[in-house]
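Lab notebook, page 48
Experiment: co-folding of the full assembly
Goal: obtain a model of how the components sit together before planning crosslinking
Operator: M.T.
Materials (sequences as entered):
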Amino acid sequence: MADVRLPGTLTPLFPGLPRRVEVEAPTVLAAIDSLEAQWPGLRDRLVAEGPALRSHIHAYVDGERAGLDTPVAERSRLDVIAAISGG
Amino acid sequence: MPKTMLTVATRKGTFVLDSDDRRDWTLRGPYCEGWPCYHAIYDPTTGEIYAAAASEWHGSTIWRSGDLGETWEMSSEGLSYGDDDGRKISKVSTLARAGDRLLVGVEAPGIFESRDNGRTWSLLSTLSGQHGSEAWDDPANQPPGHLGISGFVADPADSDSFFAIVQGVGAFETEDGGSSWTPRNKGLRRDWPADYEDVGFCVHKLVRSSDPQRMYQQNHVGMHRSDDAGQSWTEITEGLPGDFGFAAAVHPHDTETFYVIPVDGGHGRTMHEGKATVWRTRDAGSSWQPMRKGLPQENAHLGVLRQAMTIDSHDEPGVYFGSSTGQVFASADEGETWSEIASYLPSISSVDVAVLD
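Observation: model returned without errors.
Model output:
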């Protein structure tokens, strides 16, 4: 199971969504879709038309910058980050 | 007196102001998790509040509250041009109830509708085929603000009939629920060359009076009035300190009375001479009077955006506006006297009012 870390701006939007959750999925997009099944609407908060990660959402798999197609291994850590932006 | 409620959308969430007498107000919020909110309305059809919001991180959505702001849910299900279309939604700009439809205007310019009160959305129209539409999907061609569809005017008597404003292009009317559109910009002044006669106007705010034939608008270069339901327009700017402004409101019981807030048309976009002033006409634009009593008259460089002035439906209507510097001002006597009823809010995008029986 991959260890997924989610941004703090996401959890207030979905009751019961933890900051850290385990997911079994082969790619970043599949991991997000897996979360979508449990928390409908979550995918749209992270993924824009394309599909592509929203421009101020970054993903890292085991510390490396990732895209939606990036593979996720059995024991990977997937960090989903709300980029430093705004004002 | 029934309760009066203001719904205030700001760059950092939506707030609610309540009053039993329109003198003492109680502020609640921020709601919507502090998301940038561009327009919030109370919908008397459902009793729900809706807020159009767009987060830099998490995209666009519509928040809704069925208990006057105490609890909120959000949905953007269906609020997308899809993966293959090429257009993207950068922002949800404006909301309106039109019969059994809840409408939302977005950028890139398009109109989505919800038939289940904001739970799910579907694309209604992009006004494709209209003059100018071949260029307006390109974000590089969008005016600053990137509002896309920046306003609606619904027809209470006909849910299939409503106006939509395309920012920087003009107003369009549909009479068949969005299947076809007609430009409604005849007679408007413009001070720039344009490729087409019927579009290329920068309509900021469109309002309809209690007589559906009588409409008003504030645009980039003046105030205008229509006496034929938007078929043609006559300029009524003379007597005002400038021709540029965003906000406008029409009296709910008197079709001759109309309010505007002229602002500097350059980079400033703030009230003239640092004097906060609402201008009122009682004769459909033949003359204008400044309403200043109770408003700051020195170093008051306030901006007011297009959705940020409104008027209630009491017998003696109250007028309200919110500023880009976070103040809400209210008048309970049709603009004669004013008081500041909220301060230090984030920059205000919209103010909507409801009288709750």
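Interpretation: The longest strand of chain A covers residues 77-82.
Next step: discuss with group before ordering constructs.
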